[in-house]
Amino acid sequence: MAQVKDVVCGMMVDPEKAPAKAEYKGKAYHFCSPGCRAAFEKDPDKYLKAEAEEGHKGGHCHCCC
After folding, report:
1. pLDDT along the chain (65 residues), means of 10
2. Using an 8 Å Cβ cutoff, are 56 and 12 in contact?
3. Between the CA of residue 50 and those of 1, 9, 43, 44, what are the distances in Å?
4. What is the pTM assigned to this prediction?
5. Quick one: which of 48, 58, 57 has its CA closest to 24?
6. Strands (E), the chain
C-alpha cells in the first residue's frame, strides 16, 4: 500500500504499519508515533490547516523521535 503523510511532522508512514492512528471528521489519519497522534488530537484543525496552506516536507520527526 502507498505511504501517507503524517500531518503533524510530515514523515511518510505505511498506513498498515503506522504505530498510531486517529479518525477525525470521518477520515483516518496515520502517524509515525503516539506523540504525533497526541499532538493532532489536541488540535486537529491546526495541523490540517497547516497541511492545506503550506504542506509539510517529508523528513525526520522532530516532535517525538
Report:
1. 91 96 97 97 93 61 57
2. no
3. 25, 11, 11, 10
4. 0.79
5. 48
6. 4-5, 12-13, 20-24, 27-31
